[in-house]
Fold this protein.
Amino acid sequence: MDEKKVKPALTFEQQLSRLRDERGLIIEDEESTIEKLKRYNYYRLSAYMKPYMLGEKFRPGTTFNQIVQLYEFDKKLRQLVMSILEPIEITIKTQVAYLLGVKYGPLGYKNKEFFKNEPHHDGFLKKLDREIESASKTRTAFIIHHMTEYDGQLPIWVAVEIMSFTTISLVFKNMLNEDQREIARGYFGHDEDFVSSWLYTLSHVRNISAHHSRLFNRSITYPAKLEKKERSLGFPDNRLFAVLFIAKKLCREASDWDAFLSNLHVLIDSFEGKPERNMIWFPKNWYDLLR
């Protein structure tokens, strides 16, 4: 690597100086700013500076506290999104485990004949082996139990407990059409192609949130699949609102959704009137659409 092309590291004091003296950011309290730079990482905060910048300079009047408030808003947003994705993840794991276990037996999920694509099934088994190995290293109790008592054979209702959201979404995608249909239409009340797509999109957003990455003003890599009448509502399919729109369709517990929506309403209202609020890409009637 040519080290001359790599930017030099800056001390926290130098980071503050760059923000204030080179880029025009208002620093209300130097000591507090240094402490926040130590806690949050300059590079992480830089993603939240962009809405306030014109070229390489901050818009006149921009303060460091505004940037921190935006970061903390996004943090709360991620936590809220995680709270509603968790019951959806648990539900799809339960539904897949029940159908495969009852229909094909406790170890039927290892049989390629019960899935559409053999290479994808092989890939799933290898990924599951890695997840089992990882769980074994952390001495997960139920994994150790099955390793010692059942020679490492995990029935499907145990295996799903260590699968990631992404893994279970890919398992569902590769299930036979009739099995997908039984879960998608029979339990969720939606077409299996849509449910399959929604699960993968939600798993992607779950990973973003779990790794503390930015949700604010982010384009989602795997857009939400929307029906024609929903696309006519005008909100983009690759932004967070579309993700929440499809999450509502898969959330089967009304109390979970009501609590989530109430907390989201409070959070969004806290951003009313701020110039960066429009960058969360929520339509004006967002609450009615999600309610």
Q: What stands out?
A: The mean pLDDT is 91.
